[in-house]
From TrEMBL:
<protein>
    <submittedName>
        <fullName>Cell division protein FtsA</fullName>
    </submittedName>
</protein>
<dbReference type="Pfam" id="PF11104">
    <property type="entry name" value="PilM_2"/>
</dbReference>
<keyword id="KW-0132">Cell division</keyword>
<dbReference type="InterPro" id="IPR005883">
    <property type="entry name" value="PilM"/>
</dbReference>
<dbReference type="InterPro" id="IPR050696">
    <property type="entry name" value="FtsA/MreB"/>
</dbReference>
<dbReference type="InterPro" id="IPR003494">
    <property type="entry name" value="SHS2_FtsA"/>
</dbReference>
<keyword id="KW-0131">Cell cycle</keyword>
<feature type="domain" description="SHS2">
    <location>
        <begin position="5"/>
        <end position="202"/>
    </location>
</feature>
<dbReference type="GO" id="GO:0051301">
    <property type="term" value="P:cell division"/>
</dbReference>
<dbReference type="InterPro" id="IPR043129">
    <property type="entry name" value="ATPase_NBD"/>
</dbReference>
Length: 711
């Protein structure tokens, strides 16, 4: 006869004990079940707060079972899923100095994110790092330069980031369980987690490739576990459950809490519930009336569960949701969860003991979703118990729970080895400014760490077993960046030019942080290097000490008022062609400077925008005649001059006096031709303008046709 399997589900409101026996290799039978409620609040959020009180309840269940089935020495138990702490963490690395990101670098970054989550947990709980075990993690997303990406391997960018969700179990949860059992005269035969227990009987290994959420709604909390990719990928909890509904009912009708709990259990569609409040008033409440009162609390519970599922599952809904526990029977709850998750109602279902395969339940035990976890605890603790394993890390023994297939990375996290240091950091780079351009000189790449398991090289994803010895040799940091000026710029050649017949050689300027330097000078971070050669004619003249002098200004008078003229021009030539100081210099250029110290009256008039003469053109006796006259009377040193090409200097006294403006007259044409009028008294003639008779004093204009007609 196979030994009996004794298991306990130690919950917030009560403790459920089950007795099972194994019929064959695959089939079990539940032959007995006892449920006893706590006499006081000995359990809070899955943690035993009063060991003595919990031990008394356990002993009471044990005694009842022993009366019917004989002595019991060992029991299978579960750590409450609500005791698990789920924290998000993230870690980033700088990719600017890496060619591509490797598989090992991604794995290291994942574990660094888990350690960051562990550090957050320590800050929140103000506990020592050794008081929590990491029992699993899953990657939420990879990011490259702030954008979500499917995979980081062989990617290139500036910054790679991994975000994970990690789950931790307090050591004290296990220790308090052991102490409570010992006081009841029992020894822990097997240990599991409540979410694992329920999943074990409802979602076998063959189904865990599916993304399914299992929600166990108890009295004080709702525990959640997620499966995907053939494993249990995440655990979580929300601190509200069935008691929230009971409290709402108690507050509305002024009921003692046990009475409100009893009414909640009687609340079914189509039924009317009768009860009495604390003041003695009687009530009859229909299903719809209770639903209207309790709807806000139900919706709050559904919302909290849905949001936690999304958080654990990478912000997207799972393929299906299974709901168990006494709180799962709350009317309309599953419909509201499906609505919040945007899943069809058929994908959110209550599962009870009938859904457990290979388990026979005797008729005297009521079928209920509240009994899935107690039965699962017995089977999971029997078939897949959580074991303590001992592994040596660099000569130090590390004990941890084997909740899943342990890897080297899991051991390193629990050994408090800084995963970010497993891959040697690159050496420090240098940021430099060269000729105004910002450049970076990278440091040398670091070397990866060496991890050995029992003397063999392994990676952080390699599996480990009890008794393994792991040695970690951290990677070495790369050398810091080293550079000289000659490594960053090409040599600048000197300029050879000739200025007014004298040869000049112009060497380039090379400065480091504003001070002269040489090409073989070593550089340090934030140095500023400038290597320049002169580029224009003006720069070269200034460098060679040749001033581009300008002549003195000239003072003249116009109608008695003084006017200051601009200084005389400098004529600049390069290779025989007139140029300007802004012209680009040529190596081997021949430059000439000619200072213009004198100027003519015509040049002065042009600078002053004076129209010194007026002119018209007419036809006279069939020939073209150009008639000009001076608009100004010009005096140089008080003598009138008419030659506009007369050269004057700064020592001359030049004055311009405007003449009255009058029209040209017919008589002006004779001063510009060789024609002479006859002097004989007998000669008769007639002046004509454009075919009409004219006089000597008549005005004429440009284009007129003039003639002297004899008769």
């Amino acid at each position: 006869m196979s030994p009996l399997l004794f298991s306990l589900d130690i919950g917030t409101r009560s403790v459920v004990g089950t007795i099972m026996k194994q019929l064959d290799d695959e089939q079990y039978e539940v032959i007995d079940l006892v449920q006893v409620e706590h006499k006081e609040r000995a359990m809070i959020d899955g943690q035993i707060h009063n060991v003595l009180s919990v031990a008394q309840v356990i002993e009471q269940i044990k005694e009842q079972f022993e009366e019917r089935h004989g002595p019991l020495k060992e029991v299978n138990v579960a750590a409450a899923g609500r005791a698990l702490k789920t924290i998000r963490g993230e870690a980033s690395i700088d990719l600017s100095e890496r060619l591509l990101i490797s598989t090992e670098a991604v794995q290291n970054l994942e574990l660094a994110a888990v350690q960051e989550a562990h550090e957050q947990l320590m800050k929140q709980t103000k506990e020592l790092s050794t008081t929590y075990y990491c029992v699993g993690y899953s990657v939420l997303q990879y990011e490259l330069d702030g954008e979500v990406i499917g995979n980081l391997i062989d990617q290139h960018g500036q910054v790679a980031t991994i975000k994970v969700i990690a789950t931790f179990l307090p050591r004290v949860v296990i220790e308090s369980l052991i102490h409570s059992l010992e006081r009841a005269g029992l020894k822990m035969a097997g240990l599991t987690l409540e979410p694992i227990a329920a999943i074990h009987v409802l979602i076998p290994q063959s189904m865990r490739r599916l993304n399914v959420a299992l929600v166990d709604i108890g009295a004080g909390t709702s525990d959640i576990a997620i499966t995907s990719d053939n494993t249990i990928s995440a655990y979580g909890m929300v601190p509200i459950a069935g008691d929230e509904i009971t409290e709402q009912l108690s507050n509305h009708y002024l009921l003692d809490f046990p009475i409100a709990e009893q009414i909640k259990r009687q609340w079914t569609d189509g039924e009317t519930v009768e009860f009495e409040d604390i003041l003695g008033m009687m009530y009859e409440a229909t299903y719809d009336e209770l639903l209207s009162i309790l709807s806000p609390s139900i919706d709050e519970l559904a919302t909290s569960i849905s949001e936690q599922i999304l958080s654990l599952n990478g912000d997207h809904p799972p393929q299906a949701v299974m709901v168990i526990g006494g709180g799962s029977l709350t009317p309309t709850l599953t419909e509201r969860v499906s609505e919040h998750l945007k899943l069809p109602q058929a994908r959110v279902q209550i599962r009870d003991t009938k859904a457990i395969k290979n388990v026979i339940i005797q008729d005297n035990i009521q079928n209920s979703p509240a009994l899935v976890t107690p039965i699962g605890i017995a089977l999971a603790a029997q078939e897949s118990p959580i074991q303590y394993v001992s592994i040596s890390v660099n000569g130090r023994d590390i004990r941890l729970f084997e909740l899943s297939n342990l890897t080297v990375g899991d051991v390193l996290i629990n050994a408090q080895i800084n995963v970010s240091q497993l891959f040697g950091k690159p050496g420090l780079g240098m940021s430099l400014t060269v000729n105004g351009q910002f450049i970076t000189v990278p440091g040398e790449h670091g070397t990866p760490s060496i991890i050995q398991r029992n003397g063999e090289l392994v990676s952080i994803k390699s599996p480990v077993a009890d008794g393994d010895s792991i040695e970690v040799i951290p990677g070495k940091k790369g050398k810091d960046a080293v550079a000289k000026i000659e490594d960053l710029i090409e040599k600048v050649e000197p300029l050879h030019i000739t200025i007014n017949g004298e040869p000049h050689t112009i060497e380039p300027t090379l400065t480091l942080n504003g001070e002269p330097t040489t090409l073989d000078q070593s550089l340090k971070d934030r140095d500023v290097v400038e290597a320049k050669q002169l580029t224009t004619v003006g720069q070269c003249l200034e460098h060679c000490g040749v001033e581009i002098a300008r002549g003195e200004s000239l003072l003249v008078k116009i109608d008695g008022r003084p006017h200051q003229l601009k200084p005389s021009n400098l004529l600049l030539y390069m290779n025989g062609q007139m140029t300007t100081p802004q012209t680009a210099i040529q190596n081997g250029a021949v430059i000439q400077l000619i200072q213009q110290s004198e100027r003519t009256l015509a040049q002065i008039a042009k600078e002053l925008n004076l129209y010194t003469t007026s002119a018209i053109s007419v036809q006279f006796n069939g020939e073209l005649v150009n008639i000009t006259r001076m608009n100004y009377t010009i005096f140089v040193n008080e003598e009138e001059v008419t030659d506009l090409q007369l050269v004057v200097t700064n020592e001359d006294d030049v004055s311009w006096q405007a003449r009255p403006t009058t029209n040209f007259m017919f008589s002006d044409v004779f001063a510009h031709t060789d024609f002479e009028l006859p002097t004989a008294a007998t000669a008769q003639y007639q002046l004509s303008r454009n075919g009409n008779p004219a006089e000597f004093t008549d005005p004429i204009f440009n284009g007129d046709e003039l003639a002297v007609n004899f008769f």
